[in-house]
Design goal:
about 230 residues, mainly beta, Immunoglobulin-like, 5-stranded antiparallel beta sheet, 4-stranded mixed beta sheet, elongated
């Protein structure tokens, strides 16, 4: 016969309570809701600072700089862009820095567009090489008046011209240049209105030149003697 029934019952109850207390001990972070912790991590990962940059040069296959080429970087349903300067250099800012590659494109009228996928950082560099459409040829049909003609088989884009005078003394009006508005179709010619008054004296050399985005430079040089405002061809 058990002499200590109450003592035995108390001992059993104590052991059970001790076991429950050990298994239910809260962890150190139990007071931080799990959902709040996950939301905090997600919001940090979605941060996209716009401190990325892309710079470089735009040239043709012969490393000649291409001015006015548009370089654009697409990201998150938007983009940043810039245009190349006279040296072919471009610099784009305000690009998001995130864990993804971005489509960078380069284009200009008269050239086939180029593109590349890049991972943008705060100082990314990349050089574009553009290939012109089918090459054509320009010629100078007349010097006075100055007439440019497309003697090739394809349209010439951004036809440019210049008149440069070298030599002589106190020559006023040494050079002029410009760009033809609109493309020049095959067989088409255009007269450049570049009248100027030359003042000075001495031996000089005048160079007439023309070129286009898809046409090499064509030039004519004539030497002569300038007396006051007279030009005497030799």
């Amino acid at each position: 016969m058990d002499k200590y029934p109450q003592l035995r019952k108390c001992l059993i109850v104590g052991i059970v309570l001790l076991f429950i207390g050990l298994t239910g001990t809260p962890s150190i972070n139990a007071n931080i809701p799990i959902s709040d912790h996950i939301t905090s991590v997600t919001s940090i990962s979605n941060i996209a600072p716009y401190g990325g940059t892309l710079s470089g040069h735009v040239t043709d296959s012969e490393e000649n700089p291409i001015e006015g080429a548009r370089v654009r970087v697409y990201f998150h349903d938007t983009y940043s862009e810039n245009y190349s300067d006279s040296t072919g250099f471009f610099h784009i800012t305000n690009i998001s820095i995130c864990n993804c590659t971005k489509n960078a494109t380069c284009s200009k009228e008269g050239y086939y567009p180029a593109w590349v996928y890049l991972t943008i950082s705060d100082n990314t560099t990349y050089d574009f090489v553009l290939t012109p459409f089918n090459i054509t040829k320009l010629a100078i049909a007349s010097l006075s008046p100055f007439i440019i003609k497309n003697v090739g088989n394809v349209t010439a884009f951004n036809v440019s011209w210049s008149i440069t005078i070298n030599g002589g003394f106190i020559v006023i009006g040494r050079s002029s240049s410009g760009v033809v508005i609109g493309p020049l179709e095959p067989g088409q010619e255009i007269m450049i209105k570049s009248g100027k008054l030359l003042l000075g004296f001495g031996n000089i050399e005048i160079t007439w030149a023309t070129w286009a985005d898809n046409a090499p430079i064509f030039s004519i040089k004539i030497a002569g003697r300038l007396l006051l405002y007279f030009f005497i061809p030799q």
